[in-house]
Specification:
The chain has helices spanning 32-43, 56-68, 83-97, 120-148, 177-197, 224-231, 242-253; strands at residues 23-26, 47-52, 73-77, 102-105, 159-164, 202-209, 264-267. It has 281 residues and is an alpha/beta fold. Helix 3 packs parallel to helix 4 (120-148). Bound molecules: beta-D-glucopyranose (BGC). Beta-D-glucopyranose binds next to loops.
């Protein structure tokens, strides 16, 4: 099918609800960056599945907040590292809304340790959630999106897959080899998937956040001393907030980004600019 390069057939890309009529699944959406993406998607007009692994109350609170914006929302419990859970989650979403237009593969965690102390369990937990979880969710989403095809009334693409990676797909991180390895894995997973799914008109990209103020990095910002030391790594001079990633995700999922494919959008206040070289080298 030839690509439609005309602009404005849908007429919604410039309005304030660029995701209107689209069905999104955000994994790990009961807190942190996932919560920020779920809220931003709701405000942009998408129906949002708020996936969570453990905290049902927090997930239902996010659902209520999305619903307050006038968009539909649904909480579904699933451990993204478990194949049966992921399959069940996609089946439930299909029953509720008939399919999926946007996957944001966000669920992720850290189990930090020096290499000499790192247990196999710490290694496996991080790889299973951050990397295998991305695979299981993207596989289920790709199957659904290929089956469904383009719905021109909502988007020029048959689907959008966004991986939430990290600046640590670029920056090595001593004391966190499991986490950095998982994010390095996400980088080539995303790029290879983008190459594979392009003929189906499924756009695949990543967002690589820097330091975003959430529970995962609390020790890095909760005391004034820790925050001052963190800010030395951020040229723009502030820690990020989940909405910084939410807004980027809305744009990346929208038709305004229809020609963006196979890319990592780094959202880090300049953390990847080697700030220590500003006065040195
Ligand atoms: C990590 C955070 C860290 C940030 C910047 C993120 O991917 O989860 O703990 O603050 O990268 O180093």
């Amino acid at each position: 099918m030839p690509h439609d390069i005309s602009n404005g057939s849908k007429g919604a890309s410039m309005d304030d609800q660029p995701l209107r009529g689209q069905r999104a699944l955000v994994t790990g959406a009961s807190s942190g960056i996932g919560e920020g993406v779920a809220r931003a998607f709701g405000a942009a007009g998408a129906s949002v599945v708020v996936n969570y692994a453990g905290n049902a109350d927090a997930a239902h609170r996010v659902v209520d907040e999305v619903k307050a914006t006038g968009s539909d929302a649904l909480a579904i419990r699933a451990d993204v590292s478990k194949e049966a859970d992921v399959e069940m989650m996609f089946a439930e979403m299909k029953r509720a809304w008939g399919g999926i237009d946007i996957l944001v593969s966000n669920a992720g965690l850290q189990r930090d340790a020096a290499i000499t102390d790192m247990t196999l369990e710490q290694w496996n937990t991080v790889i299973s959630v951050n990397l295998t979880g991305a695979f299981l969710c993207a596989r289920a989403a790709a199957r659904a999106m290929i089956g469904q095809g383009v719905r021109p009334q909502v988007s020029r693409a048959a689907g959008k897959i966004i991986c939430i990676s990290s600046v640590h797909e670029i920056i090595p991180w001593a004391g966190h080899v499991n986490y950095a390895a998982s994010k390095g894995g996400v980088k080539l997973f995303m790029q290879s998937l983008a190459q594979e799914l392009a003929p189906h008109r499924i756009r695949v990209n990543s967002i690589a956040p820097g330091a975003i103020k959430t529970a995962i990095n609390r020790p890095a910002w909760e005391t004034p001393e820790a925050l001052a030391s963190l800010l030395k790594l951020i040229p723009y001079g502030r820690i990020g907030v989940p909405d910084d990633i939410g807004r980027t995700a809305v744009w990346l999922a929208s038709d305004d980004a229809d020609y963006v494919h196979g890319q990592t959008i780094v959202v880090d206040g300049g953390m990847t600019l080697y700030p220590e070289f500003a006065q040195g080298g």
